[in-house]
Amino acid sequence: MKRSLQSLDSAALEGRRALVRVDFNVPLKAGAIADDTRIRAALPTIKYLRERGARVILLSHLGRPRNGPDPSLTMRPVVKSLEKMLGAPVTFLEDPTSAEAVTASRRLSRGAVAVAENTRFYPGEEKNDAELAAQFAALGDLYVNDAFGSAHRAHASTEAVATLLKPAVAGLLMQDELRYLGQALDEPRRPFVAVLGGAKISGKIDLVEALLPKVDEILIGGAMACTFFKAMGLETGNSLVEPERVDLAKALMDKAGQKIVLPSGGVIGRELKDDTETRAVRREEIPAGWAVFDIDPYSEADFARRIEAARTVVWNGPMGVFETPPFDHGTLAVARAMAAATASGAITVVGGGDSAAAVAQAGLGERMTHVSTGGGASLEFLEGKPLPGVAALDDA
After folding, report:
1. Which of 75, 347, 370, 394 has the most crowded Cβ, counting Cβ within 10 A?
2. Same domain, yes or no: 336 and 363
């Protein structure tokens, strides 16, 4: 259990500089923010600090700049977006490692907010450089990590700075992430069902292994199901299969027994495009020259029934190539079943990444118990791996 922002009394915040690591790694289009979900997710922590008179300095990365600063990945668009959300001016720190930035942080009025330039403009960020972390630490009197989506990376702004600036606590979003994901793993209400999808079994091996002892069922969709089909000796046509993982898939099925639930069939196409000829076939009837791009309607109904009967559901990975209709149908069916399960009192946790995007696309985000903001971080958390950005925070 990590110390939380709410554990600090107001006297520890009034007039103090709160250095907050947020996840403002937002998608950009023509220099403008295309989706501000991650910014909005950080608002509760920012507002909590402002209301208690803290001076708020925000650190985040944006994209993957190469060889230093990249003007196309500046945090300036974030400043404009945040100003609109807060209804207040936001200071931009052009070089957070400079003496001028430290001075500016001290001159902020109580409740004021500043955004530092992209942390990845500095080579030491991804190297978890102690010197860079010390320069970041000079901007604050206490540290708050609210960037769950970056917590699985040991970077200067997520791990090293937390060892230098104390207290180092979890923000409100981070608290929610740790609470809901932790509760799902450690104290699940049963039946506990995991829904796993995505392209490759190799990316989910650790997750399947970690969840098998904990769950009642694992529902497997996406292209990774085709590797299991191949392990069953079935024809998979041109479907994406990892030949080197077939033996592993067979071993997992032997180990799991009835816990692993595979699709009964799939929606197939000759090629991956929206106007291709499609058919729904049983898994024993996949023809040569065709590929599975989604689960079939029978599997949708079966998965929905199991999800809606569950009391805890964790979902990570789409059921098909959901970004290419009509192969989004199975993924959206799972999203709707998750929403129905939530309405019936189940705890439903969506593990970020493509699953979160699908839930947003379906307009069902508000109907889940929790939608994680961190794809890779949620995956590693569910696998039982320590997250450096969390481990470095103060213990409760």
Report:
1. 75
2. yes
What is the pLDDT confidence band of residue 352, given thresholds at 50, 70 and 90?
confident
Alpha-carbon span 252 to 263, nearest angstrom:
16
Catalytic residue among 47, 76, 179, 200: 200
Give residue 327's pLDDT band: very low, low, confident or very high (50, 70, 90): very high
Residues 249 and 164 in one domain: no
State the residue range of the domain holding 132. Answer: 5-174
Contact 20, 146 (CB under 8 A): yes
Catalytic residue among 15, 111, 365, 376: 376
Structural domain contains residue 275: yes
Confidence at residue 202, expressed as pLDDT on a 0 to 100 scale: 84
Q: Is 38 a catalytic residue?
A: yes
- What order do you get walking across the sheet with 90-93 strand by strand? 90-93, 113-116, 55-59, 17-21, 142-145, 168-170
User: What is the pLDDT, as a whole number, of residue 312?
Assistant: 97
Q: Do 283 and 229 contact (CB within 8 A), yes or no?
A: yes
Q: Given 221, 353, 374, 375, which residue is catalytic?
A: 353
- Which one from 38, 204, 245, 306 is the annotated catalytic residue? 38
Whole-model pTM? 0.89
In this predicted structure, the answer to whether residue 164 has a pLDDT above a threshold of 80 is yes
Question: Known catalytic residue: 200?
Answer: yes
Angle value at C-alpha 202, between 24 and 204, nearest 5 degrees: 55
pLDDT of residue 376: 86
Label residue 276 exposed, middle or buried (CB < 10 Å: 0-12, 13-18, 19+). Answer: middle
Interval 314-320 mean pLDDT: 95
Residues 279 and 367 in one domain: yes
Label residues 278-289 b or e (16+ Cβ within 10 Å = b).
bebbebeebeee
- Say if 159 falls within a structural domain: yes
Last residue of a domain, one of 174, 199, 226: 174
Lowest average pLDDT, out of 71-75, 152-156, 351-355, 361-365, goes to 351-355
Tell me how far apart the alpha carbons of residues 174 and 161 are, in angstroms, rounded to a whole number. Answer: 17
